[in-house]
Specification:
With 495 residues, the protein is an alpha+beta fold. Helices cover 37% and strands 21% of the residues. The termini are far apart. The relative contact order is 0.07.
Length: 495
């Protein structure tokens, strides 16, 4: 039986790589017929034509993309064996035990997990975290609906002890499973290969814990020869670019800061610098306003080998960067790749708009240095933390001494709810001008710059960094009592 399984999994890996290569040919024919009706037919059965140079540009680009995908799959299987050895040796003693996911000698998926359903000492381990979710707890999680899906996995929403969670498992009718089954492999072997990605992600989540990485709440290794696994994580909301652009600058800066801190963490991780190969909005979620990386199955510690600097060109659409070759490896490959992706997918949309005027030079510097990769992720995170400190402390206001608000009348415990609202930049609320301020003096200065502003209401509502929220009004003539607010009305000079 053991020999039979070894042959099954050896065949599984081999056929998977073969079918990915075959997919290049499979995808070419339909694309050619759709995109170029004048493409000459290939006289060879199953061939591409006498000369690849005759192929249309879109078709050759598609071939290159598929070839890159094939190389990525080959590299992931080959290099992940080595990276998991490093990860295991670097793990902390109190973390759940696990082994590398593919044994080089047996080519069999392995996962040494804490059996949370066994009595203490039954397998030499005991549950250390009382909130940990294992197989026993998984049986009692109520599935409340779908949360998302991809090529390999399906994500469902669940409820555990009144807390919303996300459940990840293999999508048995998903793209990767269908592709595998189409080769003639049996469902057991295809499932084992698909579950490999979830197992890998569980291991990485254990090793790379960080406030900006989704929290692993537990997992269940169901057993069986297909290596079926369900992972349980905290539930986040999707990132939508339209909603992000409509958010306040303060909230958008929070996301940018979190990303910079995440990349700095990945650059000095226990398994070495980590590259996020599938870097896009869909890989991240928001949890209580904090951005978190939610998908790690396409992350690894890969960096290209090189003979000289010419082998280390980091290419992106429309631009490229020349890195250095050091000791046979392209230096800072992971960090620079991650940082430029963060710039082009996030920073360029989130940072430059509606910036407080005094912070604009610092934000512009961050944009310029990340766009040209002059900074590392650590330098980027340090710079953004400086911006945060200035914004939170009020240092950006550059005040000299204390100044009283002489042009405004202070009316304690008063408000003008639903009256005199108007739209303004940096607003935290739609249909109103609600802006975070350092104090009443800054709010008064902002009101002075708005021609229609007649006063403002300072509330006890606080933003994520503790700044109070002020509502600016163009009508303050009918105040009502409110113990939680202070009304400031502009004292107009006599005409």
């Amino acid at each position: 039986m053991a020999c039979g399984r070894r042959l099954h999994l050896t065949r599984a890996v081999t056929v998977l790589l073969t079918v990915l290569g075959t997919a290049i040919v499979v995808n070419i024919s339909p694309l050619g017929s759709r995109n170029d009706r004048h493409l000459s037919p290939d006289p060879r059965p199953g061939g591409l034509g006498q000369d690849d140079q005759t192929l249309p540009a879109r078709l050759t680009a598609h071939i290159r993309d598929l070839q890159n995908e094939l190389e990525t799959k080959r590299r992931e299987i080959a290099e992940y064996k080595e990276s998991m050895d490093v990860l295991v040796s670097a793990r902390k003693p109190e973390e759940p035990k696990f082994r590398r996911l593919m044994d080089a000698r047996r080519e069999k998926l392995l996962l040494q997990v804490v059996n949370t359903d066994a009595p203490a000492g039954a397998n030499g381990t005991a549950r250390q975290d009382p909130g940990y979710i294992g197989c026993r707890e998984l049986e009692h999680i109520k599935v409340t609906g779908p949360a998302g899906s991809g090529y390999t996995k399906v994500v469902q929403k669940g409820e555990h002890n009144g807390v919303d969670v996300a459940l990840k498992s293999v999508a048995m009718s998903g793209h990767d499973m269908r592709l595998c089954l189409d080769t003639g492999m049996d469902r057991r072997d295809c499932s084992a290969l698909a579950n490999y990605k979830i197992v890998k992600e569980v291991a990485l989540l254990q090793a790379l814990a960080h406030p900006n990485i989704i929290k692993l709440l537990g997992y269940c290794f169901h057993g069986g020869e297909d290596g079926s696994v369900t992972s349980i994580m905290e539930l986040g909301g999707p990132l939508d670019i339209i909603n992000l652009l409509q958010a306040s600058w303060e909230d958008r800066f929070r996301i940018s800061l979190g990303l910079a801190q995440l990349l700095a963490h990945l650059n000095s991780s226990p398994i070495g610098p980590v590259t996020l190969h599938d870097f896009k909005l869909q890989q991240f979620v928001l949890v209580d306003g904090e951005v978190k990386l939610a998908d790690l199955d396409d992350a690894d510690s890969y960096a290209p080998n090189c003979h000289d600097d010419s082998d280390c060109t980091l290419e992106f659409p429309g631009t490229s960067f020349q890195l250095s070759c050091r000791q046979g490896t392209c230096s800072s490959w992971s960090d620079k790749s991650n940082l430029y992706n963060a710039y082009r997918y996030f920073f360029v949309y989130l940072l430059p708009f509606e910036v407080p005027e005094a912070l604009k030079p610092l934000v512009d510097e961050a944009m310029n240095k990340t766009a040209t990769l002059q900074w590392s992720s650590e330098e980027t995170a340090s710079h953004m933390e400086r911006i945060l400190d200035m914004y939170q402390s009020g240092a950006y206001l550059h005040r000299e001494g204390k100044s009283d608000i002489t042009s405004y009348k202070k009316v304690p415990q008063s408000d003008v709810p639903g009256v005199g609202d108007f739209d303004c930049l940096r607003s935290l609320s739609r249909g109103a001008c609600a802006v975070s301020v350092f104090d009443a003096q800054e709010a008064a200065s902002m009101c002075d710059r708005e021609a229609e502003c007649r006063g403002f209401v300072l509330t006890n509502r606080k933003t994520w960094i503790g700044r109070p929220v002020a509502y600016f009004k163009n009508d303050v003539s009918s105040p009502v009592e409110n113990a939680d607010t202070i009304l400031y009305t502009k004292v107009l000079a006599p005409t």
